[in-house]
Amino acid sequence: MQAVLSSDFSFAQFRYLQRLLLVHGRWSYIRMCKFLKYFFYKNFAFTLVHFWYGFFSGFSAQVGPACFLMACVAFSSKL
């Protein structure tokens, strides 16, 4: 009983193991792939905006508008 309480997954019979691995494992893998693709896109877009701003301001160390700084929050909230 203690092993069931401290585990992430528990099932009554081993016949449920196949569905857990093949169905739910695949769904978890697909969700993780979508998340990582979105994560890399978000960080690339956030960095590119700052690079463009720095390039067009001549890398003068001028502080950008607050909307650039809030871009990460806006992208992350759409998850």
Automatic annotation (TrEMBL):
- Pfam families named among the record's database cross-references: PhoLip_ATPase_C (PF16212)
- InterPro entries cross-referenced by the UniProt entry: ATPase_P-typ_TM_dom_sf, P_typ_ATPase_c
According to its UniProt entry, one GO biological process term is:
phospholipid translocation
This protein's membrane topology, according to the annotation, is: Multi-pass membrane protein
Q: What is its main location?
A: membrane
- Transmembrane stretches, by residue range? 35-53
In this chain the P-type ATPase C-terminal domain maps to 4-63
Record's GO cellular component terms = plasma membrane; trans-Golgi network
The answer to whether UniProt assigns keyword Metal-binding to this entry is: yes
Q: Per its record, what are the GO molecular function terms?
A: ATPase-coupled intramembrane lipid transporter activity; metal ion binding
> Which UniProt keywords are listed?
Magnesium, Membrane, Metal-binding, Transmembrane, Transmembrane helix
Give the UniProt subcellular location, in the record's own words: Membrane
Q: Does Metal-binding appear among the keywords?
A: yes
Q: Can you name this protein?
A: AT8B1 ATPase
**Organism from which the protein derives:** Lophotis ruficrista
Its organism's taxonomic lineage begins at: Eukaryota, Metazoa, Chordata, Craniata, Vertebrata
